[in-house]
């Protein structure tokens, strides 16, 4: 039986893979101040937003929250946070009033708030006018899809995080034939790891062709 047990990867600044596609985001995160104390980080899935958010939170003693889990208590209570705040999946909050209260509290306390989502506030839909206007006035920065050098390093890092030993010929073949997105690399490694574990066999080109038909580009 294969259990979904995974070694937790430390999302620290030292383990983050730097590249031109995330240089602007890293520059913003390195600033000591942001306009009104807020910053919105956005970009495609698999481009390191959660990693950057988690690393920033660790360095600035911030509380990390997942906006999808926000809910309004039937007793009328709400989340209260002291200190800096990092909100992941900020473009899809479970309860907008909770998010608005958190932003108001942070501003009143002089704390900083880092938010991350796949879309910028201008392209996200919020029902509460006060929340929408507050977020659209927030400074934004973005991560882009990884360039070739970063993609190659990311693929090797994802394999190493799962302690997978794959031949150089297979990793180079995967790099050439997988879509040029971070999300595709993450999805491919997850699927190959699960298949190799279930079948008790190494990751080969044949296994990749079988498990990733919707991701791989045709042979040249």
TrEMBL record:
Q: Which InterPro entries match?
A: DnaA_dom, Hda_lid, P-loop_NTPase
Which ranges form a coiled coil? none
Which named protein is this? Answer: Chromosomal replication initiator protein DnaA
Q: Gene3D superfamilies given for it?
A: 1.10.8.60, P-loop containing nucleotide triphosphate hydrolases
What are the GO BP annotations of this UniProt entry?
DNA replication initiation
Its domain of life? Bacteria
Question: Which Pfam families does the protein's record reference?
Answer: Bac_DnaA, Hda_lid
Output the Gene Ontology terms for molecular function. DNA replication origin binding
The residue ranges of the Chromosomal replication initiator protein DnaA ATPAse domain are: 11-68
Please report the organism this UniProt entry assigns to the protein: Gluconobacter roseus NBRC 3990
**Gene Ontology CC annotation, any one:** plasma membrane
Sequence ranges assigned to domain Hda lid in this UniProt record = 160-205
